[in-house]
TrEMBL record:
Alphabetically ordered keywords of this record: Aminoacyl-tRNA synthetase, ATP-binding, Ligase, Nucleotide-binding, Signal
Catalytic EC class: ligase
Protein name: proline--tRNA ligase
Provenance organism: Musa troglodytarum
Annotated EC: 6.1.1.15
Record lineage: Eukaryota, Viridiplantae, Streptophyta, Embryophyta, Tracheophyta
InterPro entries associated with the record: aa-tRNA-synt_IIb, aa-tRNA-synth_II, aa-tRNA-synth_II/BPL/LPL, Anticodon-bd, Anticodon-bd_dom_sf, Pro-tRNA-ligase_IIa_arc-type, Pro-tRNA_ligase_II_C, Pro-tRNA_synth_II
UniProt-listed GO biological process terms: prolyl-tRNA aminoacylation
Keyword Nucleus appears in the UniProt entry: no
Length: 580
């Protein structure tokens, strides 16, 4: 198969014949199902290990292949300090904490078991909330006709730079371009790893509004069919030139919810409800103090009338858009003819929403809480909440210690605490301490022969390193131990949120002039100020400072305000920041 390269919008909108005239177009040639790799990306590398060095090169250029699959850094060596190079620190932590590795296609990422377990924790919480709010899970195909994208003009305009097309299948040119329903976005994990015998031209899904509307049109006929509220867990693909693991890759995992309603008011209520679900997850589970608000017109999702967002401040003070909820109005329903008969017998177009969070949230957790010792996980989403490290020297000591830690594990497991024993004999206790600190496990229990004799343990906190974070002489008596561990886990959860909130608040500056905004942004901070200027002025700010309007926060100060850019009256303050 030929290399993959992204065509221009004009090319995407041109007949298929034009595609044949362009050298090396962006296309996926789908062969018969021989289960061989489908493609390599233009300039892509072969198999290579995930390391801080290779990850940095992956972000900025096309790295050469590397035969060594082992990370160049491990937790045994210190990671790059955050204050020295935040990006290198981030890549070091991903490698050393064994969260992810590179896929064979440039820009893709393999999520390793520990990293995927964090994503599963996000899924488990949100799945419950989605069902509590009346949504059902289902799945849509990853391949959709390109003509679906063309039906909604602003949608194709917004996504065309990120689309991938399938134009050849079974050795023949397809009759119609199709969008491969895998979002080619700024984050990826796997880019169509295998080939299949297909006879149409497809687009790789960048998002599912179009295919959803095609199906909604077949399912919705009467007001009795509304509201229709569904969610899917899927992979999506969007073409990205600069990638960053978890934050921005060719393919990524996400959930996307889609709903249809009889009125605008119902759709607006739904969009606000779902952004609130995301906010609660961020605060209560991920311990990330997001700011909730409305996007500016320039930052609104392509095809939506309003976009709501949760914005998080990372450890380098850049903003991360951690989740969005869109009120789509009737834009897609009019384009696809998605209508229902109301109670008066009149045909009406449905009102719709869509909303999503992705594996980008994992990157947000790393960059919000991690320190120079590695990852630091909030207990409620930590795959392992307690690591038990047994310590012994002789065979007799080993038997006594292992019997004790086995009993401890059973006690904690029955109390619904996620616990693991590291009983490997190839590594020293100190090595294990460093390893599990790198992986961000909230609590460590140390058990040696003396502890067994005293029927007590030592408990160490990940968020407070050294002796200040240690509790000595904690009784092994089940009720005492369980109470102590649960109390410490809740303290860590609260402490991480408080720490992140304090950091965020100390780095948001209120501004009353454009010069003050430029100064705040130059210092790496967020700027908050009254805004009623034009879209053109918004573009000017971005061009001159690199900052964008992250949102108009829901929480607004009272009183009269004047736009710091124009001096005209302003109803709202906006938050500006550089972002991922």
């Amino acid at each position: 198969m030929g290399a993959l390269r992204l065509p221009s919008l004009a090319l995407l909108l041109s007949p298929c014949k034009s595609l044949r005239l362009v050298s090396r177009p962006l296309l996926l040639r789908l062969r018969p199902s021989t289960l061989k790799p489908a493609a390599s990306v233009s300039g892509g590398a072969g198999s290579r290990g995930l390391s801080s060095h290779s990850l940095a090169k992956e972000e900025s250029s096309l790295p050469p292949p590397s035969a060594d699959r082992k990370p160049s850094l491990s937790y045994e060596g210190s990671v790059t300090p955050r204050s020295v190079d935040f990006n290198a620190w981030y890549l070091d932590v991903i490698a050393s904490a064994e969260l992810a590795d590179y896929g064979p296609v440039r820009g893709t990422m393999v999520i390793r078991p520990y990293g995927y377990a964090i994503w599963e924790a996000i899924q488990e919480y949100l799945n419950v909330k989605f069902k509590e709010t009346g949504h059902s899970n289902m799945y849509f195909p990853q391949f959709i006709p390109y003509s679906f994208i063309e039906k909604e003009a602003s949608h194709v305009e917004g996504f065309s730079p990120e689309l991938a097309l399938v134009t050849i299948g079974g050795g023949k040119e397809l009759e119609e371009k199709l969008v491969v329903h895998i979002l080619f976005n700024k984050s990826t994990h796997f880019l169509l790893p295998y080939c299949f015998h297909i006879f149409l031209v497809w687009q790789v899904r960048p998002t599912s509004e179009t295919i959803v509307n095609h199906m909604f049109t077949q399912w919705i006929h009467s007001y009795r069919d509304l509201p229709l509220m569904i969610n899917q867990w899927a992979n999506v693909t969007r073409w990205e030139m600069r990638t960053k693991p978890f934050v921005r890759t060719l393919e990524f995992l996400w959930q996307e919810g889609h709903t249809a309603h009889a009125t605008l008011e119902e759709a607006e209520k739904e969009a606000l409800q779902m952004i609130d679900v995301y906010k609660k997850f961020a605060y209560e589970q991920a311990a990330i103090p997001v700011i909730v608000g409305r996007k500016s017109r320039a930052e609104t999702f392509a095809g939506a009338i309003r976009t709501y967002t949760i914005e998080a401040m990372m450890g380098d003070r850049k903003a991360l858009q951690a989740g969005t909820s869109h009120n789509l109005g009737q834009n897609f329903s009019r384009a696809f003819g998605t209508q229902f008969t109301d109670e008066n017998g009149q045909r009406q177009h449905v009102w719709q929403t869509s909303w999503a969070v992705s594996t980008r949230f994992v990157g947000g957790i790393i960059m919000t809480h991690g320190d120079d010792a590695g990852l630091m996980l909030p207990p409620r989403i930590a795959p392992i909440q307690v690591i038990v490290v047994p310590i012994w020297k002789t065979a007799d000591e080993k038997n006594g210690v292992m019997n004790a830690v086995s009993s401890l594990k059973d006690v904690l497991h029955k109390a619904d605490i996620r616990v693991k024993i590291d009983d490997t004999e190839q590594r020293t206790p100190g090595w294990k301490f460093n390893f599990w600190e790198m992986k961000g496990v909230p609590l460590r229990i140390e058990v040696g022969p003396r502890d067994v004799a005293n029927e007590s343990v030592v408990v160490s906190r990940r968020d407070i390193r050294g002796k200040p974070g240690k509790d000595f002489g904690i009784s092994m008596e089940p009720s005492v131990l369980v109470t102590h561990i649960k109390s410490r886990l809740e303290e860590i959860q609260t402490s991480l949120l408080q720490r992140a909130t304090s950091f965020r608040d100390s780095n948001v500056v209120d501004v009353n002039s454009y010069n003050e905004l430029k100064e705040a942004i130059a210092q790496g901070k967020w700027a908050r100020g009254p805004w009623s200027a034009s879209d053109a002025e918004e573009v000017k700010v971005k061009e001159e400072t690199g900052a964008t309007i992250r949102c108009f926060p829901f929480e607004q100060p009272q009183g009269q305000k004047k736009c710091f850019m124009t001096g005209n009256p302003a109803d709202e303050v906006a938050i500006f920041a550089k972002s991922y």
